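Journal club prep, notes for RB
We'll compare a predicted complex against what the paper describes. Inputs for the nicotinamide-adenine-dinucleotide case:
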Amino acid sequence: MTAPEVHDWQMFIDGAARPATSGATYISTDPYTGADWARVPDGDASDVDAAVTAAQAALDGRWGAMQGTERARLLRRLAELIARDAERLADLESRDNGKLLREMAGQLKALPEWYYFFAGHADKLGGEVIPTGKSNYLCYTQHEPVGVVGAIVPWNSPLLLLAWKAAPALAVGCTLVVKPSDYTPVSTLAFAELVREAGFPPGVFNVVTGQGPAVGQALSSHPGIGKIAFTGSTQVGRQVAIAAARNLNGALLELGGKSAQIVFADADLALAANGVIAGIFAATGQTCIAGSRILVQADVHDELVDRVVERARRIKMGDPRDPATEMGPVSNAAQFDRILSYIASARDDGATVAHGGRAAPDLGGLFVEPTVLTGTRPGMRVVDEEIFGPVAAFMPFTDEAEAVKLANDSDFGLAGAVWTQNVQKAHRVAAKIKAGSVWINAYRTVAPGAPFGGYKSSGLGRENGLATMLEYTETKTVWVELTGVPRDPFTLG
Ligand code: NAD
């Protein structure tokens, strides 16, 4: 059998494809086949420096002088190009991260909406006239771009999570240096070509690839950066925030989660079971909003477990590019080992494996069975820590107060759900959950206009929604004296 072809990719700096300054490269593997499939530049701090310099120069050039209407036009053109190439980009993402082609195709189909949404607001971000109580002054504000945005992105949804940063940042006039995950550099490099084709000036959008933490560290600590926008683990997010703070730079952080799905006895259990499956087994559980803690009212606990196990048994695992597949492999070997070690810890802690709990080596690739754990409780690692895999921890509760207490008994606060047919209870409980997104009788849906982010260790700031544009601006206050009369120079005016 001949080895599959390995494609070569280049970084993207100042409008041009180029190798790493050192000439080094590394290999990205396909998690399903295990085969090497892409050779990518292994950049370092000098490449970050070159990209930041280009991004700063773009702010001082044609891009910096553009009006919002012109930026909007470029963003709309980019959206059209993404729509044109959605299938190809989805295929690249699936090859890189092993997630289902049908999941990545769905994301890529929706992706243009982010660029259209923020294009629609690129020319509408006005300031305010401020009433100051001083009749001799006109006072107004304006929002100016923070400058160069350093965007650091994880492997699970590379282009979607990049869009959450790039679309608003470009809309307000920032430039970007992007660091994709080591595991999934390819779709971002292909995307950079579309940015060029759309007509964005050189230096507005740059991509530096590299293995290990070096590029991310160099980017988050670079003094030429105006803001860091990071999506990834809580542990690395903390390091990024500390690095940015040393330069007194802001950091927008989207981090990990351990989200609770609360299922009351009066819920439609068929829908709730489907929502539990969507929350923890879709994307092989590799999503920050995975609903990994399933809190079920005791009266219906066993029935819900049975329903979820019955559906989990029928989940079709296999080739991520087969449209019939429902769960693909996990993305990389470290993640595979980590998930299995969490399942082992649950067994050691006395939890029951109601379904799954093993690797599935016969399928090839890094497959872990959809796993349902019962008899779990706070204090167990599978309940307290993010696993980022297809592992659901079920816990019973007796009443509403206990459900809320269990849901909030977490260092994380990214998302959650309430399943009930009682409308008062639904809103009451949603209000008490300390998390950035709560779904009622639903799970795992996002939109460009809907703010997204975490409480507690799940993050800082919000992506999506109009307000996220302000994350990428400095507010300037301008005072205009209207009388020309000299004032007492020794008092505050
Ligand atoms: P990760 O934290 O390991 O890596 C994220 C990115 O940071 C990668 O590009 C990585 O190369 C880079 N990086 C690594 N070390 C760095 C350092 N010291 N300084 C700067 N950058 C560094 O996360 P991951 O494994 O790629 O992704 C999974 C994690 O991402 C999970 O915890 C998940 O919950 C989280 N996530 C959060 C969201 C959200 O919106 N809240 C969305 C998706 C994923």
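Talking point for the session: The domain at 7-255+458-477 is CATH 3.40.605.10 (Aldehyde Dehydrogenase; Chain A, domain 1).
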